[in-house]
Design goal:
With 353 residues, the protein is α+β, with helices and mostly antiparallel strands. It has 2 domains: 169 residues, Triger factor/SurA peptide-binding fold (Orthogonal Bundle); 123 residues, Roll (Chitinase A, domain 3), CATH 3.10.50.40. Helix content is 52%, strand content 13%. The strands form 3 sheets. The protein has a 4-stranded antiparallel beta sheet with strand order 5-4-7-6, sandwiched between helices. The chain has a 3-stranded antiparallel beta sheet with strand order 2-1-9. The chain has a two-stranded antiparallel sheet with strand order 3-8. Helix 2 crosses helix 3 and helix 3 crosses helix 6. The protein is globular.
């Protein structure tokens, strides 16, 4: 019916590693190579160039000048925000440990041979050291946001009751609903602007990855944990693969293989590997495994329903975290000295036309 919905060595040695990470490639030949400053950190042209090349690799045509400038400006803004977070994390001492980094890297490597993973990194434009540094940054920022935002958001029983009373009609289900989860692996290449660690890059890799996951399910491993580790549907993977409730009438709109697999399942059973094909071109888009979590009848859902409570709790948490995140970003920026020289140059150039 209603499910959880979700939307991002020693301390001294880690600090040194983060400083090195943040200053890598930060040796400019002149001030003209500095595109921005975040406190004492200088964002260099070479850093932006490298990120730009990763994002445009494989593009069918070269962007126009205005498009290129807009992309570089966006990349630079992202780097500024990244530095703000990393510097704040270092100040608070909430840095990713070597053990946490190695654990995440091991998860990403699991579906591939050593040679396949090395090829993937090459295709993404990363060396292995750069990839580990990227993982360290992401884990560090996750820890920072959990400390500064997630840990400060509380949802009381009164909050849940009030939300339910104000939105009671939302919980009146007019037809039976399927509660589903899936693990999805795409056979399409990584999208440059949204790299997925450990992603399959071809039909063969996608099938090998989903087969590995299915074998682990058969060995008794938890579906939700495997979805978090390996599903390439990022939005649902974070939530253990859970999908939004599927009304019975909408089941007929699903692709035939998925629909037939769902109809055969009993609660808590998962399907065989399902091939997803573009009906127009017959191109294989990917593979999925579907699990039936349950099926709920039509009718009014009460506040004593655990799914209703979890849905409300998640909705309220997401709203409050989003508000707090926006305010936190402003506070962090207000406390920093930021200069975006590239943005200034764009404005200057426009005035000369």
């Amino acid at each position: 019916m209603i499910q959880t919905l979700k939307r991002w060595g020693s301390v001294s040695s880690i600090s040194l590693a983060l400083v090195f990470l943040a200053s890598g490639c930060n040796h400019q030949n002149s001030d003209t190579d500095v595109l921005a400053k975040v406190n004492s950190y200088k964002v260099t042209r070479s850093e932006v160039d490298k990120a730009y090349q990763r994002q445009t690799a494989g593009a069918p045509q070269k962007p126009l000048l205005e498009q290129e400038r807009a992309m570089r400006l966006q990349i630079l803004q992202q780097m500024i925000n990244l530095q703000l977070y990393l510097q704040k994390a270092e100040k608070l001492g909430v840095l990713a440990t070597d053990e946490e980094v190695e654990s995440r890297v091991s998860q990403d490597k699991a579906p591939y041979t050593k040679e396949e993973f090395a090829k993937k990194l090459q295709e993404m434009g990363y060396t292995e050291d750069e990839y580990r540094q990227d993982i360290r940054r992401k884990l560090t920022i996750d820890k920072l946001l959990n400390k500064e935002i997630g840990s400060k958001v509380t949802i009381s029983d009164v909050d849940i009751q009030n939300f339910y009373n104000q939105n009671k009609a939302q919980f009146n289900v007019i037809e039976p609903q399927y509660l589903l989860a899936h693990i999805y692996v795409s056979s399409l290449p990584n999208v440059p602007s949204s790299q997925i660690p450990g992603k399959a890059e071809s039909e063969t890799q996608a099938f090998e990855k989903i087969r590995m996951v299915h074998n682990r399910l058969d060995s008794g491993e938890d579906f939700a944990l495997l979805a978090q580790k390996y599903s390439e549907d990022v939005d649902t993977g974070r939530n253990g693969g859970e999908l939004q409730p599927l009304p019975e009438s909408s089941l007929k709109e699903r692709d035939a293989p998925t629909r037939e697999a769902i109809l055969k399942l009993k609660p808590n059973q998962y399907s065989d590997i399902i091939k997803i094909v573009n009906p127009a071109t017959q191109k294989v888009l990917g593979y999925r495994i579907v699990k039936l979590l349950g099926k709920e009848p039509a009718g009014q859902r009460g506040l004593n329903d655990p799914n209703v409570q979890q849905f409300i709790r998640t909705q309220l948490r997401n709203q409050r975290e989003q508000l707090l995140r926006q305010a936190y970003d402003e506070v962090v920026r207000d406390g920093a000295e930021i200069h975006n020289y590239y943005a200034e140059q764009i404005v200057k150039d426009a005035g000369q036309k």
